[in-house]
Amino acid sequence: MRVVIVTYSPGPTLAMCLASLGRALSVPYEVVLADNGSTDGAPEAAIRPGGETAPVRLLRMPANLGYGVAANAGARNTESEWILVTNPDVVFEPGAVDEMIAAGGRWPRAGSVGPAILTPDGAVYPSARSVPHPVRGVAHAALGWWWTSNPWTVAYRRERSELAEHACDWLSGSCLLVRSAAWRSVGGFDPGYFMYFEDLDLGERLGGAGWLNVYAPTARVTHEGGHATSRQSARMAAAHHDSAYRYVSRRWPGWRAAPFRLVVRFGLAARLALTRALNILGSGKVATRSREHLPDSSSDD
């Protein structure tokens, strides 16, 4: 099995992630660290040839090319049935990956399988979501960052869904098991997304190709979240809004949807300006928080 971890100066979280992997699956596996330019030495320290432990290989990107490009490179040329793409700040509970593989076996058309993702304080993050409808997406983007319980955000994030195994529209890319055949059928992540929305886009394209995205909450992981984005919050906020518009423009193309795209473009620009202003005023959490309240991705490299 191929495990792809996208890294960008991950610090001590990478060692914790790798240690937890050994308890999370019982099948043979290899790890590829697709590195986007780390400077902290953590990926280099994690390299190991194998033997009694799973081999860890470092794959350096020529520059910071984004989450999707790095993940695609790390997954390339694998003969494994399954590919696990994960952030380095994810800690797996014992047997978690085995549970995800078992869920994939129960759903023969499962193109991707996602676990229950817990926040550091033990809350369940809404990682199995719906594809945003235009009205729902706009309302969520406009209201979700300050009125988190509004009906459009709740519907989009499916926060009140039962914690039961089910198919959904898309799954968080922070920890995602993908069937290799499904991954190849859609070409992996769209490299046009630097960060954010690449998992929404992948889930939608998998569904369009006849695959299912399956949420398997019997598998549990804890995701620290935002450890890389918080260091460059202004840049990541801009990347988030760029990805949002890319998704909207590709999801609703053509002249008939031009007014809608124009509204979205101006709305995102205004929201980004507000985010930057609040950051200047000292609200360092705004950029990280806002990424959870758009039709977004949960991928943090």
Keywords:
alpha/beta, Spore Coat Polysaccharide Biosynthesis Protein SpsA, Chain A, 2 domains, 11 helices, ten-stranded mixed beta sheet, 301 residues, two-stranded antiparallel ribbon
Q: List SSEs in N-to-C order.
A: EHEHEHEEHEEEHHEEEHHEHHH
The CATH topology of the largest domain, please? Spore Coat Polysaccharide Biosynthesis Protein SpsA, Chain A
Fourth-tier CATH superfamily name of the largest domain: Spore Coat Polysaccharide Biosynthesis Protein SpsA, Chain A
Mean pLDDT: 81
Number of DSSP strands?
12
**Judging by the overall fold, what is the CATH architecture of the largest domain?**
Alpha-Beta Complex
Structurally, how many domains make up the residues? Answer: 2
Overall outline: globular
Helix content bin: 25-40%
Specify the structural class. alpha/beta
Uncertain regions spanning at least 5 consecutive residues: 227-232, 283-301
Termini separation (Å)? 21 Å
Question: Main beta sheet, described?
Answer: 10 strands, mixed
Number of helices: 11
Strand content: 15-25%
How big is the Rg? 18 Å
Describe it.
- The protein has 301 residues and is α/β, with parallel strands linked by helices.
- It has 2 domains: 2-130 and 161-223, Spore Coat Polysaccharide Biosynthesis Protein SpsA, Chain A, CATH 3.90.550; 229-290.
- It contains 11 helices and 12 strands.
- Strands 1, 2, 3, 4, 5, 6, 7, 9, 11 and 12 form a 10-stranded mixed beta sheet that branches. Strands 8-10 form a two-stranded antiparallel sheet.
- Strand 1 (2-7), helix 1 (13-24) and strand 2 (30-35) form a beta-alpha-beta unit.
- 47% of the residues are buried.
